[in-house]
Every structure is written in C-alpha cells, then in structure tokens.
Amino acid sequence: MTRRRACTVRVNMFVFLLNMLVLLPSFGRTQTEGDSNRIRQVDFYNFTYQPYCGGDKLDEPVQVKQGAFERSFLGQEDFIKFQISEIIFGDLTGDKRNEAVVVTRCSTGGTATFSEGFTYTMQNGKVRLLARLKGGDVADGGVGKVQIKDGLLKVERSAPTNQAAHCCPDYVATTTYRWNGHDLVQVGLTERRRIDRANDKKKD
C-alpha cells in the first residue's frame, strides 16, 4: 500500500512538472508581449509636450487634447498652434519592448511651421523621454516620415537646394540612427533623394 501510494505521488509530481515545462514558455511570451505593447496604451494625443517650435523651448509645456493645442495672446498677433502629425512604434533599445516616436508640428504666428520629433520609452511603468529629434521648418530641415526597422530609426527631413522655392523643398534627406545606451547616434551617411512631384501627384 505504501509503495503504491509513493508511486502515485511520483507520477503526479512528474505530470505536474511536465505541465509546468509546457506552460512556462507561453507564460513568458505573454509577459513579454504585454510589456512590449505597454507604451501603445499611452494616449499621446492627450499628452504634455515641451516643444522648441523652431527656437528655444517654450516657457510653458503644452497640453495636447485630441492631438492639438492652440493658444492666442490677447492684443498680439502671435499665437501657438501645436499638433501631432504622426506616431510610430518599434524597438529601438534592443530590449524587445517598443518605443514611441511622436512627430509634431508647431506654428507661432509667422509663415513658418516647424516640425520635430520626440522619442519615448517605458521605465518602471512610466513614460520617459528618451531623445529628441532635431527638426526645423517643414520646408527646410523639418522632420517628415519616420520609421523603425531592425532596431534602427530612419528619419526623413526636408533638404531644399538654393534653386527650390521656399514653400517646396526639392530634396529629402534620410538619416539613420541607433540607440547607444545614452543617445541616438547617426549610422552611416545621410542619403539624399530628389522629390518627384509629378509622380507624387499621379499617386494622389
């Protein structure tokens, strides 16, 4: 009787351990997948930013609601108009967790509109600014399309020549960055390509 009971206990323990070996990998994947997508739960369309708007930082941060912020100054022609133009996600730090890149546009009352980028990560369950993407006027140095691929961040910026009209840059410069543990550093040379507006209009 004692031998039979001991045998049954050993069999039950074997079955239990076998089940644990089967379940643990899937549990680990679930945890990793949940962590990697946590930053997607952040509502960057209702968020607080500290933009440069083409110059120094604004005196006060802007609190975006539904992707936009606007404020006029009483008795002055100047105003601030700030909006979100694009948000992308991808792993930049190599920890199998997504980061977020937010591209914004800002106007302060003149004819120029400035674009820049903010890169965010999750740290101890909170959103942290990882790095800023230097921008400029949307027609001269402003951040356009961004992409995260294979752990690298590709950033397109307008790059007009002297022959281009101020409104319409004739070239786009693409710079690739990687995270070195402290900052985004450039990888390789910046690539330039001419903008083919005729083909762009056909696609539209």
What does this entry look like structurally?
- With 204 residues, the protein is α+β, with helices and mostly antiparallel strands.
- The longest helix is centred in the first third of the chain and has 35 residues, at 2-36.
- It has helices at residues 2-36, 197-203, and strands spanning 48-49, 62-63, 68-72, 79-90, 99-107, 114-123, 126-137, 143-149, 152-158, 171-179, 184-194.
- It starts with a helix and ends with a helix.
- The chain has 2 helices and 11 strands, in the order H-E-E-E-E-E-E-E-E-E-E-E-H.
- The protein is flat, with a radius of gyration of 25 Å.
- It has a 5-stranded antiparallel sheet with strand order 3-4-5-6-7, with no helix packed on it.
- It has one domain (31-203).
- Mean pLDDT is 82; it is low at 14-18 and 20-32.
Distance between the termini: 83 Å
The number of domains:
1
Class by alpha and beta content: alpha+beta
Strands in their spatial order, largest beta sheet: 3-4-5-6-7
Helical coverage, percent range: 10-25%
Unreliable spans are 14-18, 20-32
Rg calculated over all Cα atoms: 25 Å
Keywords:
single chain; 204 residues; alpha+beta; 21% helix
Task: Please outline the helices and strands.
Elements: H1 2-36, E1 48-49, E2 62-63, E3 68-72, E4 79-90, E5 99-107, E6 114-123, E7 126-137, E8 143-149, E9 152-158, E10 171-179, E11 184-194, H2 197-203
Antiparallel strand pairs: 1-2, 3-4, 4-5, 5-6, 6-7, 8-9, 9-10, 10-11
Nutshell version of this structure?
The chain is an alpha+beta fold and 204 residues long. It has one domain (31-203).
